């Protein structure tokens, strides 16, 4: 089956699947600690501007390119710009980025899956309420040669199953069920967190703007987080764009996705910080916040804590699952289009490859920590490549392609569903795609390298 024939069955399905891709560990794990670090409310304000002004424009650009071309990234760029086939390389770079991000994502997802099981078995609860054993548990688990690998493989198998189900029966149906479940889980956790004694201090930490902490670095971090959180700049939204039904309003769809993604990030902050403050713990836990600080919070709640712990790590795992699905879908769809083999064959092959790479990254934190690239372990190296180098380049290429290579008439035609929609925002969209977004991305990219 070729890409052209595939599509999400409804606009709701398309939105849910794309929200599933966007909402992930970036919202629940990365956003809260980044926001806390760079001045709470001040960061949030800048973040919201970036997400809506630049992030959503990138998403619309990928949707326009994907739906117009009806191909996977490499062929999409080539089809829309037949005179310069070299643009296909940009698509290739996007697909490669997806491959590396997925491998790294699998490692983190393996941990969250492991923590669901550790919560259920009471292993986490047994660690008590002092910080040292909890941090040690995480250190031992994440560097163990076998344990995290087992969970990684289980998680990866789940992802593969959904992809084998196909675009409508797999991705769309799973997203339509899991995204509401995720919203419910997070609301339950928010209510619990906000009703704890002393919760308001956490709310203040998240929302009260402290502009003195909002440095240039913070502003760049806000833009980086905006791109990461919306899953733009790696061909994922381009492929999902090619599945968006022809009569769907691209602008509205992207706005819905952006709004949901931002809401979930804010709700995650509200689920985490009030509880952390209520327990008198250090909110600046950084990346370890979720694994090293939160178990402490749950353990102060007695038996109910076990339930909340299971719910929380389940939430993380569900969020990671729908994101991982979108990444494997890009790889699978691209492979199928270029090799003309069956979808299932490519999905299994790619899943095996990316899982093997994930296992290698996971082991680079323990058994293989002596292997170094430019002084970094494999895991830290790929983390750098995945955040600083690849996504900003792909994103930059994408807006330049849309703003400067595609004829204005084509972009407008696709954006307005062949002129059937009135789209007053088109001029603004085009302006941001041509000037503002490329400039902002260039600044992020250059400063990322220099830092
Ligand atoms: N947006 C995802 C998150 O918030 C992370 C991510 C970045 C991603 N790029 C992606 C997910 C591409 C799927 C596809 O966690």
Overview of the molecule:
There is one protein chain. This protein is mainly alpha-helical and 451 residues long. The protein has a single domain, classed as Hydantoin permease, CATH 1.10.4160. 76% of the residues lie in helices and 1% in strands. The chain contains 18 helices and two strands. It has a two-stranded antiparallel sheet. Helix 3 (41-69) packs across helix 17 (408-415) and helix 13 (289-299) runs antiparallel to helix 14 (303-339). The chain is globular, with a radius of gyration of 21 Å. Residues 1-5 have low confidence and may be disordered.
CATH topology: Hydantoin permease
Q: State the helical fraction.
A: over 70%
Q: Looking at this structure, what is the CATH superfamily?
A: Hydantoin permease
Beta-strand percentage?
A: under 5%
- Inertia-based shape: globular
Rg on CA atoms, Å: 21 Å
In the residues, how many domains can be counted? 1
Order of helices and strands: HHHHHHHHHHHHHHHEEHHH
CATH architecture: Orthogonal Bundle
Bound heterogens, unique: tryptophan
Distance between the termini: 45 Å
Low-pLDDT windows of residues? 1-5
Sheet with most strands? 2 strands, antiparallel
Overall average pLDDT = 91
Q: What is the number of E strands?
A: 2
